[in-house]
Amino acid sequence: MAGLSETALRDRRVGRLLEKLGRFTDGRSLKARPPIFLRVLGALQPWELCSPDLCVAIEIVREHVVQMTEGEYDSWLQSRVTLPRPTATGQSAS
Q1: How far apart are CA 37 and CA 93, in angstroms?
Q2: Would the CA dihedral through 80, 74, 60, 27 be positive or negative?
Q3: What is the pLDDT of residues 37-85, one digit of tens each?
Q4: Is 86 inside a domain boundary?
Q5: In terms of residue numbers, what domain contains 63?
């Protein structure tokens, strides 16, 4: 949580995500399994998953609490959110 900005910590969406994830930890350690993490995130709307502050919180939890690989999360996210495809020059397609 030290990696979150003050603004992110005050954001109710970030707080809601952390509160939901906190219910799935065993109290002694902050460790949640990937399926539970994804189930919690599945309750969010696609636009919420793309919110910059929430993305920071999700990345911190994914990496440090759930210990899920970036590839696993990216695969799941792509199944939930339509992302713009990069063009050959690295720019997003319009």
Answers
A1: 31
A2: positive
A3: 899 899 888 888 888 888 888 888 888 788 899 999 999 998 988 867 7
A4: no
A5: 6-80
